[in-house]
């Protein structure tokens, strides 16, 4: 009998984590998946990234519209409430044997909490990692509702142990979102040059900066510092819209006002294009976790601005700077220097990547006994 | 100013429905989205509206949600090569902007098909 796994995807952030796992499941006769798509994926502001999922050939079983307009802390919470109602009905109807979630977003926490209450085992990709702010709280709260933890590195394993999670639940798998990159599934430089109308003989900057929930109200001033730095340098730039966390509406308007003809602003790019952009870029600027996790795979320097990634493990490709235009300009110049880039090849990233992570995860999803021992958690201190 | 710019532009607070009305009126399949100061923020085409409706968008959805963010434009100083630019950029409407990105004119690839 095939085992039925329900996968939850709310936006491009965690789609990269689950996409390679779903693809591996699609090729495995012992597993089948249902895909529940929600939040950002379904919204025009973020370029209907649900279309990317369809183009990837994955089968969407449910579309749960949740997101209230306004993008304030209050609408974020109410939107999560809508998901809680919708996903309960989806699980009732689908009757999955495992629910697979990923990362540190509130949507996944809600999915895990609902599944755990409905006695459906929860498996969590990117468990135990350190990340700052509300995202970090969400990730570790989710751990308490998860029955299987997939850790991307030994430090995450150790953190899960210290949280009291039982040894048999913890699996050191690596980070599945790196599989595509390691296996070279990314757009070629000539495709990038054509699609984004950029000349790759110049340095290319990739800018991704999200609002930080705890710093609600400061996002615009923070973004201004980054955009001023970008305007000062005037290198070809591809900027991708922030996610829809509180404060993001104002950021999008600001970006539109700072938009110059030599800049490309994108609501969303597919995973394959994003990989291609990272490979073609000379530096990534902002506060996306991809600067810390994915960038080392393609030897890409990252200028990490502000506190959003405060507690996250990082390799030598990351230059941390505060929200200050002069410091950002200086850091970008350092990142673009041949000496800095040359140093990157010498040391390792804290994130594991051998290109076979999703296969390991699929194996565990297949082999784990779905019994009382799995469902009844002993939280040991 | 060569043309009635209000036929070819729309304020960023407008809805998809208003964009459709403007496109219907100008008969050139595209409208340029501008801010309070007349700076070009993007464009909305027939195709953008179609795609939004296929995703069950409502006519009251703001145009900023569906507009193209990287419109091809030329500056006033490049206007001399306008005809050439229209051809190589494959657009029906090419906004002409000032150095600070304000809409000053539009160049058209075709005359309207219907009067």
What labels would you give this structure?
heterodimer; A: 381 residues; alpha/beta; Rossmann fold; 2 domains; seven-stranded parallel β-sheet; six-stranded parallel β-sheet; 13 strands; B: 115 residues; CBS-domain; 4 helices
Structure report:
The complex is a heterodimer of chains A (381) and B (115). With 381 residues, chain A is an alpha/beta fold. Chain A folds into 2 domains: 3-182 and 355-375, 3-Layer(aba) Sandwich (Rossmann fold), CATH 3.40.50.2000; 189-344, Glycogen Phosphorylase B (Rossmann fold). Helix content of chain A is 41%, strand content 16%. Chain A has 15 helices and 13 strands. In chain A, strands 3-2-1-4-5-6-7 form a 7-stranded parallel β-sheet, sandwiched between helices. The model of chain A has no long low-confidence stretch (mean pLDDT 92). Chain B has 115 residues and is α/β, with parallel strands linked by helices. Chain B has one domain (5-108): CBS-domain. Chain B is built from 4 helices and 6 strands. Chain B has a 3-stranded mixed β-sheet with strand order 1-2-3. The mean pLDDT of chain B is 88. The chains are: A alpha/beta (381), B alpha/beta (115). The A-B interface holds A 42-45, 48, 50, 197, 252, 256-257, 259-261, 264-267 and B 12, 35, 39, 41-42, 51-52, 55, 57, 61, 64-66, 69-70, 73, 101.
Q: Quick recap of the structure?
A:
The complex is a heterodimer of chains A (381) and B (115). Chain A is an alpha/beta fold.
Helix/strand layout:
The complex is a heterodimer of chains A (381) and B (115).
Chain A: E1 3-9, H1 12-26, E2 31-38, H2 50-55, E3 60-64, H3 73-94, E4 98-102, H4 106-117, E5 122-125, H5 133-145, E6 148-151, H6 154-162, E7 170-172, H7 179-182, H8 189-195, E8 205-208, H9 219-233, E9 237-240, H10 248-258, E10 263-266, H11 271-280, E11 283-286, E12 302-305, E13 318-321, H12 325-336, H13 338-344, H14 357-367, H15 372-375
Parallel strand pairs in A: 1-2, 1-4, 2-3, 4-5, 5-6, 6-7, 8-9, 8-11, 9-10, 11-12, 12-13
Chain B: H1 5-8, E1 9-11, H2 16-26, E2 30-34, E3 40-45, H3 46-54, E4 74-75, H4 82-89, E5 93-97, E6 103-108
Parallel strand pairs in B: 1-2, 4-5
Antiparallel strand pairs in B: 2-3, 5-6
